[in-house]
Amino acid sequence: MTRFNLGYILESFIPVLRGLPITLTVVLVSAALAFPLGFFLALVINRRRKMSSRLAALFVSFMRGTPMIIQIYVVYFSLPGFFVFVVEVLKLPVDVYKINPLVYALTVFVLNTSAIFCEIFRSALHTVGPAQMEAALSNGLTEAQAYWRIIIPQMLEATCAPLSTASIELMKNSSLVFYMTVMDIMGIIKTTAAEGYNYLEGYTLAWVIYLFLCYTVEFIWHVIERRLKRRGKTENLYA
User: Is 20 or 3 the better-scoring residue by pLDDT?
Assistant: First the structure.
């Protein structure tokens, strides 16, 4: 029976943290881009226009109904070929094979996260109700102003809990970017652990790091939710 190599964890902790910026980049950029895209998809589906709403619903259904690892492989192996075709047609001086794999990883995670955020925003929009929009329009606001000033502030509080869960899932799923040769936290752990067959120690280290990151994400969303509730109570007092 092999002994648990605590020395590997102590020696690898700092090198593994060098992959933290990549992990945070995937999570933060994906969430930042998926937030408006998911909201746009929610609006398109809720408006129930035949073609656009069906296409948006089909996209969301596909992204939520297929394993993320399959999406990763499909994008990673098909997107370069598409880029080669575009470069050849437009005769661009670009070497597609030198594109950072992080670009493909972000593509997958933005699309996947936007589909998840879409369902969250759709549910939140139903909690506000159409009367709020009608009242805003009757008072001279444009539709965009109504969403920005009235609809979105009311729905944000209802979305904090599901967005927190979705963000935690995004953080955990970010470990899959290693399959696209992106050296994040998990990528470095798998590489270093394979050198000395320290797989148990490596995955234990990964468990501790991701547990800390997920708790941090949960805490941040808890603070956001608490401030939104406090802001809502203050506005009700002065209403």
Answer: 20
Q: Which long-range contacts (CB under 8 A, 24 or more apart) does 29-35 make?
A: 29/106, 29/110, 30/106, 30/109, 30/110, 30/113, 30/170, 31/113, 31/167, 31/170, 33/106, 33/110, 33/114, 34/109, 34/110, 34/113, 34/114, 34/116, 34/117, 35/117
Q: Does domain 6-233 have CATH number 1.10.3720.10?
A: yes
Show the 3-state SS of 124-180.
HHHHHCHHHHHHHHHCCCCHHHHHHHHHHHHHHHHHHHHHHHHHHHHHHHHHHHHHH
Q: Which long-range contacts (CB under 8 A, 24 or more apart) does 91-96 make?
A: none
Query: How far separated are the first and last CA of the chain, in Å rounded?
Result: 69
Q: Where do the structural domains in the chain lie, given as residue ranges?
A: 6-233
Question: Which ranges of the chain would DSSP assign to H, the alpha helix?
Answer: 6-17, 20-46, 50-65, 68-90, 101-128, 130-138, 143-146, 152-173, 185-196, 199-238
Would you say 138 and 62 are in contact if contact means Cβ atoms under 8 Å apart? no
Residue whose entry in the numeric block shows the structure tokens 């937030």: 35
Q: Quick: pLDDT tens for 59-93.
A: 999 999 999 999 999 988 888 888 888 888 888 88
* Burial zone of 209 (CB within 10 Å; 0-12 exposed, 13-18 middle, 19+ buried): buried
Model-level pTM? 0.88
- pLDDT tens, residue by residue, 163-195: 999 999 999 999 999 999 899 999 999 999 888
Higher pLDDT, 126 or 170: 170
